[in-house]
Specification:
GO terms for molecular function: metal ion binding. This is Probable COX4-cytochrome-c oxidase chain IV. It comes from Serendipita indica (strain DSM 11827). Keywords: Metal-binding, Zinc. This protein has about 150 residues and is of the alpha+beta class. The protein has 2 domains: about 40 residues, no CATH class; about 70 residues, q5lls5 like domains (HSP40/DNAj peptide-binding domain). Helix content is about 20%, strand content about 15%. The protein has a 3-stranded mixed beta sheet, with no helix packed on it. The protein has a two-stranded antiparallel sheet with strand order 2-3. Strand 4 and strand 5 form a beta hairpin. The chain is elongated.
């Protein structure tokens, strides 16, 4: 961006001709978003580190990572990452339900009863009836809690 002094010195350096184009100092419109007008940053943005300091994870976290850290501070598991409580083995007639707000969820099966085989990762999906563990035969079904056709990632 040319400053006023730079534009004046450039203008004096140009040849004085009849077809010369006059230069104006470059200007930029300032955006008037609420973020620029507010005194505090929105809660989804961290305050950052003070000059000369290395920021902590909490200070530099933004977006979903910050939401997760704020939830941990309040004792809430925002993304429900705990183990799926299973009181029985899932069958084709009565599968183990996997709650999800997404149309797919990764499920780890380590056998029934617990830890009878190594972890096998399965994809429970809204697009198919069931997901069955090839080791123990445990059946999982996605229990879709979100809106149909609602949040697509493109």
């Amino acid at each position: 961006m040319l400053g006023l002094r730079a534009a004046r010195s450039l203008r004096s350096a140009l040849p004085k001709t009849k077809n010369a184009v006059a230069l104006r100092p470059a200007t930029r419109a300032i955006a008037s978003s609420s973020r620029l007008r507010s005194e505090k940053p929105p809660a989804i943005y961290g305050e950052g580190a003070k000059p000369g300091e290395v920021p902590t994870d909490f200070q530099q976290a933004t977006g979903l990572e910050r939401l997760q850290l704020l939830g941990q501070m309040e004792g809430v598991d925002v993304f429900n990452t705990g183990p799926l409580i299973m009181s029985k083995a899932g069958t084709l007639e009565d599968p183990t339900l996997v709650p999800s707000y997404s149309e797919e969820r990764i499920v780890g099966c380590n056998g029934w009863p617990s830890e009878t085989h190594d972890m096998v990762w399965l994809t429970a999906s809204n697009h198919r009836e069931n997901s069955r563990c090839p080791e123990c035969g445990n059946v999982f079904k996605l229990q879709f809690l979100g809106e149909a056709g609602g949040h697509h990632h493109h």
